[in-house]
Design goal:
With 365 residues, this protein is α/β, with parallel strands linked by helices. It has 2 domains: 123 residues, Rossmann fold (3-Layer(aba) Sandwich), CATH 3.40.50; 161 residues, Rossmann fold (3-Layer(aba) Sandwich). The protein is built from 15 helices and 8 strands. The strands form 2 sheets. Strands 2-1-3-4 form a 4-stranded parallel β-sheet, with helices on both faces. Strand 3, helix 4 and strand 4 form a beta-alpha-beta unit. The longest helix is centred in the middle third of the chain and has 28 residues. The termini are far apart. The relative contact order is 0.11. Bound molecules: iron/sulfur cluster. The site of iron/sulfur cluster has 13 residues, from helix 14.
């Protein structure tokens, strides 16, 4: 069994740690590029959402590199994600690839099925696998800390290319590390390098929250590196959902008898009291939370045809009015043009700056 898994931001680092700890060979797909998307789009239904197309491209590349088993998380929620695995398996079979799919649903949906899949993946070493998952969670904690350092340093330093170089080397070094312990050492060392970059502590950057569909806010290829772009424009950003956040709410809390996404559900309840699939309640909850924390603006990112986020989009217009917070809406698919995307971000940042400046003036006089 040679395992592979799709890319979704930094998730590969934590998943690699799990399989390294278990001594199981896994193949990490090459980082997503235009070619990956082209491969996946060619074989996908035209109107399916972008993550389906990109992850299919990831699988094709991994299979060509020798993988024979694909591991993904699943969900029974009422959106397309529930049929990603079965449909992608069918497409790959039609292409002549004989691969096995292991779809791991969160334990709260089917605890026995979850344990069965963990046992299968770990060759019967279930308790060691559960410890490895917990160690991978610690990796996710460190990844979030590293990103927060980036978010802080980027708008406050003049030389943005130093950050890019450090992060480029990080991707190479983390692939060479073996197991969660070594991976955490690499992440911490990278954080220290970022912290040694000279910054202007007097800079007061705009604060922008990133909300929307989980895959497109986490996977930088799909959102055209929105975090880096906004950081380079002088904004300190915060990503509302991360792999750690997902793991806490879908694995750790249910495993200890607690309900996940409490804050998000409480805040979003007046606007959307029921689960409609995807992360609509989380998106609305985070938008309100950022507004309460006095963020200057929000960017909602979601794939074209994403049903849950189209619902969020309509509610967010009301949140803008109710909470007096500007929101930029970015829809992504394989047709997105980089120049138009960059222009919209620049215009939004200019608008937020002007708004903040005018607000300060009106407070003064
Ligand atoms: S949340 Fe949206 S993008 Fe994600 S699988 Fe569901 S419909 Fe597709």
């Amino acid at each position: 069994m040679i395992i592979t898994y799709p890319h979704m931001g930094e998730a590969y680092i934590a998943v690699k740690g799990i399989f390294d700890n278990l001594g199981i060979k896994s193949i990490i797909a090459p980082f997503t590029t235009e070619d990956t998307l082209r491969l996946g789009s060619r074989e996908s239904p035209e109107c399916v959402c972008l993550p389906f197309k990109i992850t299919l491209g990831n699988y094709i590349k991994s299979i060509e590199a020798g993988a024979d088993t694909i591991v993904i998380t699943g969900s029974c929620g009422p959106c397309r994600f529930g049929y990603y695995g079965p449909l992608q398996k069918q497409i790959l079979q039609d292409m002549g690839y004989d691969v096995d799919f292991i779809i791991i649903d969160p334990p709260k949906e089917n605890p026995l099925d979850f344990l069965h899949n963990i046992k299968k993946l770990s060759n019967g070493k279930t308790s060691k696998a559960i410890k490895s998952i917990y160690d991978a969670y610690k990796v996710c904690i460190e990844i979030d800390k590293l990103n927060e350092i980036q978010y802080y340093v980027r708008p406050r330093t003049k030389n943005k290319s130093i950050i890019n170089n450090i992060m480029y080397n990080f991707k190479r070094e983390v692939l060479d590390a073996h197991g969660t312990k070594e991976i955490i050492e690499v992440i911490k060392a990278t954080g220290n390098k970022l912290l040694s970059i000279p910054i202007d502590k007097n800079t007061k950057p705009l604060k922008i929250g990133i909300i929307g569909e989980i895959y497109t806010i986490i996977e930088p290829f799909s959102n055209l590196n929105v975090e880096e772009r906004l950081g380079n424009m002088g904004a300190e950003i915060h990503r509302s959902m991360t792999i750690k956040h997902w793991a806490e709410n879908n694995l750790i809390m249910p495993a200890t008898g607690r309900k996940g996404y409490k804050m998000e559900k409480r805040l979003s309840n007046p606007y959307i009291p029921v689960l409609i699939g995807g992360h609509t309640q989380q998106c609305i909850g985070h938008a309100i939370n950022y507004a309460n924390l006095n963020y200057d603006g929000l960017v909602q990112i979601y794939p074209m045809t994403c049903m849950p986020e189209i619902v969020s989009r309509t509610i967010l217009s009301q949140i803008e009015k109710d909470y007096n917070i500007p929101i930029l809406y970015l829809i992504v698919d394989e047709q997105v043009g980089e120049a138009g995307y960059q222009t919209r971000l620049e215009a939004f940042v200019d608008y937020l700056r002007e708004r903040k400046y005018n607000h300060k003036l009106s407070e003064k006089f």
